[in-house]
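task queued by scheduler; priority normal; single chain, no ligands, no partner chains; default sampling; output format set to structure tokens
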Amino acid sequence: MDTKLSYSDMMLVTQWLSPAFPVGAYSYSHGLEAALDEAPDLNVQDWIEDILRHGAGRNDAILLRAGFGGLLEEADALGRGLAPSAERLLETDRQGAAFCKVLGGAFRIDLPTLIYPVALGAAARERALPLGAVTGAYLHAFMANLVGCAQRLSPLGQTNAQAMIHALSDVCDEVRAQTERLTLNDIGGSVWAADVASMRHEMMGHRIFQT
């Protein structure tokens, strides 16, 4: 699959997935806040790697591909149904709605309200962007956001955080490659601890993140 981007396309994908793009990704920990609250010595790198390989990372890559292929309603409905908790549904729903709103206002790309990965896939199709490159960039942004959450929740430190992002970048590329030929029929996950953590996060009395 083509993963090469022209300079202008690279700038567009970078903008869409930048922390400055107003989808509020920084406010979602994907259950990591609850996990670290219960287990402060949690191996964050292994936790995030499992999510990339066996959880939302893999599934989002498949949903993004379906959005790129025009299966908007089917992928959106399946993605919503897959959410293991109310807050995980909130996470992908609100980010997707914000992404679609800004696309319409700033880029004249009019999409129905979709969950985040499906919306990104549809937008990439509209601008004829290479699917492989967009998928890899999405996974990297998702992963880097979780590492950033860990920095705010634990004494990880800037240098260790950057080393973690560097190590997990290869995992993002592996997941991108592994999902190239997968369809909605291949959706599934096995990160039960992360799913339960997202449920427990809903019950936390004091918290920093929305999920």
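post-processing summary
- The mean pLDDT is 95.
- The CA atoms of residues 101 and 113 lie 8 Å apart.
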